[in-house]
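User: My instructor asked us to take a sequence, write out its structure as tokens, and then describe one feature of it. I'm not sure where to start. Here is the sequence I was given:
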Amino acid sequence: MKNLFIRLLTGIVYVGTISFCVVYSLYTFFALFMIIIFFCLREFYRMINVHREAGINWFVHGIAGSILFFTVFLYTSGITGRSVFSIYLLYMVGTFIYELHAGLKKPIIRLAYIFLGQLYIALPFSALNLLAFPDASSNIPVYQPIWVMSLFVFIWVNDTGAYLTGVRLGKHRLWERISPKKSWEGFFGGFGFTMVAAFIFARFNPQIAGYHWLALSVSIVVFSTYGDLFESMIKRSVEVKDSGRSLPGHGGFLDRFDSLLLAVYAMLFYMQLAGF
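Assistant: Let's start with the prediction itself. The structure tokens for your sequence are:
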């Protein structure tokens, strides 16, 4: 009972913090995800260091991931031009040069782990800026939190619906080799809950056709599930249960944001197809 209370309390703070920071202003959005990226990368690189003895400097590469978000934010918000990306390019070049001179064992494996973290975590979080500023190519981009907020709401509703349905009815394993607790019943339960959320979004955002919200919710359900499974695969490969202990009752930051890491691409792809 105590664990359930802690989990619920952490979940309320988690949802409340993200909702406030995304909706309040572009600057709270910016500050929040700069911090989240750092802690997600910290957990990822520490897992790799402990179980693969890679010796990666998680602080340096965690900061680098935040810098990628920073540069994309500056560009998509119209504050600077494309030259701002040279900051992150310098980091990439510097990382290659450092590995060349460091003389450490298995530098290619270290580089693979380093850039996997950047590709898997920093890049999709940075892509949130493209949702926040969907008209980035215009002269004066406008911050539109509705897209980022809808992505998170669909993920939260799907996770909650899948958990409640899976606990009650789950019998058929979705992908037992990777995640033994996930079931097809939970997947379709989450899918159903997310459809309801899509109808609610359509009701309160009539300027966007209802079928768009439904299509977005379907793509997010599918790819957030794959995102969750991919993180489970990583944890199994390094033999850990949770990515960290930063969020009581929920594990680590990466455990809470794994669904986002593929779903954001699905949403961006659909928005491009739909012309948003």
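For the description part of your assignment, you could build on this observation: The mean pLDDT is 87. Try explaining in your own words what that tells you about the chain.
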